Amino acid sequence: MKQLIRLGLFLIILGVLSGCGYTQKSKMPNDIKKLAVPTFINTIQAKKIYTYQAGLEVKLTNEIRNRILFDGNCKLTEPAQADAALIGKLVHFSQEPLGYDQLERVDRYRLYIVTDITLKDLRTNQVIWHEPNFVGEVIYDTKGSTGITQTNATDVGIKKLARDIVDRMVEDW
Questions:
Q1: By CB distance 3.0 to 4.6 Å, which of 114, 124, 147, 156 could disulfide with 143?
Q2: What's the CATH code, domain 25-171?
Q3: What pTM was estimated for this model as a whole?
């Protein structure tokens, strides 16, 4: 019986000491400490889509910069002083209907924001990784207690997309 208790205590101690493997250390190369995030380029043509919103690239860039500051793995700086740069383009913005009310009016949408992003080492000019179709999406209601406007849904989508981009950069998922 004493051996079982000792074995149990040993396994508990071993489990506690080994931890769960979670770390907040960045998955970026260790020598990248300073990061530049130039304003994203908006390649979406305003006349081709009715959902276009001016300034999306600025909102997204600012939100990414805020997430990087919040994350704390890198210091934000200008490209001339940076070890690497996160370079991006907005390539698509659209929404599609998901639900209808009793009068066949759309009351629920899925909104997509698609980007093309590259993390580039500025010292070696090498691409660390590239995601040509990195998508952020949000599903939103237009009516009822949870109803929001397309503009508010876009803001939510931008926040989610920025979080996912920074997570991709530091967690390498």
A1: 147
A2: 3.30.160.150
A3: 0.78
Query: Structural domain boundaries of the chain?
Result: 25-171
- Cα distance between residue 90 and residue 41, in whole Å: 6
DSSP labels, 79-92: GGG-SEEEEEEEEE
Taking each helix axis as running N to C, give the angle between helix 56-71 and helix 150-171, from 0 to 180 degrees, rounded to the nearest 10: 40
Q: Which residues pair with 119 in a beta bridge?
A: 86, 129
Per residue in 46-85, is it b (16+ CB within 10 Å) or e — as a string? eeeeeeebeebbebbbbbbbebbeebebbeeeeeeebbbb
127 residue type, one letter: V
Q: Helix, strand, coil % (nearest 5) of the chain?
A: 35, 30, 30
- The β-bridge relationship of strands 84-100 and 126-141 is unpaired
Query: Helix, strand or coil for residue 140?
Result: strand
What is the rounded CA–CA span in Å between residue 150 and residue 127? 35
Q: Say how many C-beta atoms besides its own lie within 10 A of residue 142's C-beta.
A: 18
